[in-house]
Amino acid sequence: MLAVALSAALFGVAGSAAADTKIGFVNTQRVFRDAPAAVKAQKKLDGEFSKRDQELQAMAKKLQSLQEGLEKNAVTLSENDRRNKEREINDLNRDFQRKQREFREDLNLRQNEEMAAVLERANRAIKAIAEAEKYDLILQDAVWANPRLDITDKVIKALSDDKAAAK
């Protein structure tokens, strides 16, 4: 009987505490997609890497053209010319693969740097919102959250208003 009364009291206290707890949720992917600082970072990366991307696309087209030319003229080429074309294609393909790998590595590194800076600003904004609006807990990247707990728009707006985000 005492255990039942104690359990009821504990659940009552826990239920009361849970009812008083203010919880928020932030969709980090949406912040990365929609926040002005994230959009600006993506444009910056596009600008930094567009020339190299175009060079790789041109290189891929050249490689494809050489391969098609070799296949088309394989019967009429001399053995020596065919070997020289194959060597040229292999050298270009090796160079293309190396440059493509370096491009991906550099792009991933820069994306991580830029998104880390955006995440740091978002975390500062979340903390400021939590303190100003007296949240007890704010979660990021939950499997599911009730939309009424979602404060992502507030975070995006805070980042929009943040002068540091504009830089």
Helices and strands, in order, run as: HEHHHEHH
Instruction: Based on Cα principal axes, name the global outline.
Output: rod-shaped
Strand count, sense and barrel status of the largest sheet are: 2 strands, parallel
Number of helices: 6
* Multimerization state: single chain
Count of distinct structural domains? 1
Our measurement of the CA-to-CA distance between the termini, rounded to an integer number of angstroms, reads: 65 Å
Signal peptide: 1-19
GO molecular function: unfolded protein binding
Family: Belongs to the skp family.
Region (Disordered): 74-93
How would you describe this structure to a colleague?
The chain is mostly helical and 167 residues long. The chain is built from 6 helices and 2 strands. The chain has helices spanning 2-20, 28-34, 36-73, 79-133, 152-161, 163-166; strands spanning 23-26, 137-140. Helix 2 packs across helix 3, helix 2 packs parallel to helix 5 (152-161) and helix 4 (79-133) packs across helix 5. The longest helix has 55 residues, at 79-133. The chain is rod-shaped and about 85 Å long. It holds the Pfam family OmpH.
